[in-house]
Amino acid sequence: MLRVSIDAKAVVLLDWLSRGGYSHVEIKALDHDFRPDETATPVSIFLLQYNETYIFLTTSNATSDFIVDCLNEFWKTQGDRFLKVKTLVINQDNGPDCNSHRTQFMKRVTEFTDEWGITIQLAYYPPYLSQI
Q1: What is the 3-state secondary structure (H, E, C) of 39-73?
Q2: How far is 100 from 97, CA to CA, in rounded Å?
Q3: pLDDT digits over 3-18, tens only?
Q4: Which residue, 33, 65, 76, 109, is most buried by CB atoms nearer than 10 A?
Q5: Calpha distance 71→16 (Å, rounded)
Q6: Residue 42, exposed/middle/buried by CB under 10 A (0-12, 13-18, 19+)?
Q7: Which residues pair with 2 in a beta bridge?
Q8: What confidence tens digit (pLDDT) does each residue in 18-41 have?
Q9: Chosen CATH of 2-12+39-124 out of 1.10.150.450, 3.30.420.10, 3.90.78.10, 3.40.190.10
Q10: CA–CA dist 14, 120 (Å, integer)
Q11: For 128, left (φ over 0), alpha (ψ -120 to 50), or beta?
Q12: Residue 33 contacts by C-beta under 8 Å, 6 or more apart in sequence?
């Protein structure tokens, strides 16, 4: 069994933005960030047993499809490390894009299990509980 935690994070503003920090290199930045050129939404996959985090970015919303795409990409690149794993336990919040009532998410998770021949158990955090 391998336990992972998957979570979409807050949107990050992408632009030449000033954050009030210090740098040894002079960088021209905007002093207001009300209208950034772009935004990115990070999705992280955290391997609890190994203390490893893998981060994926999208310039759109973190949809059900994107979350499972991240899991699929993670398994393509790291799955060889876990050849003996038959069950993947996924800890996640019960957000609108990844809850078990979301048919698109469940469809994609089922496709993932069929493709990789692995069982998945979804473990949801209670509402309003910070992930640990």
Answers
A1: EEEEEEEEECCCCEEEEEEECCCCCHHHHHHHHHH
A2: 9
A3: 999 988 888 877 666 5
A4: 109
A5: 31
A6: middle
A7: 88
A8: 555 566 666 665 555 566 678 888
A9: 3.30.420.10
A10: 35
A11: left
A12: 13, 15, 17, 18
Q: What is the pTM of this model?
A: 0.78
In whole angstroms, give the CA distance from residue 31 to residue 90. Answer: 40
At 107, the pLDDT band (50, 70, 90 cuts) reads: very high
For residue 120, give every residue at least 6 positions away whose Cβ sits within 8 Å of its Cβ, in sequence order, or none: 87, 88, 89, 90, 109, 112, 113
Q: Is 4 exposed, middle or buried (0-12, 13-18, 19+ CB in 10 A)?
A: buried
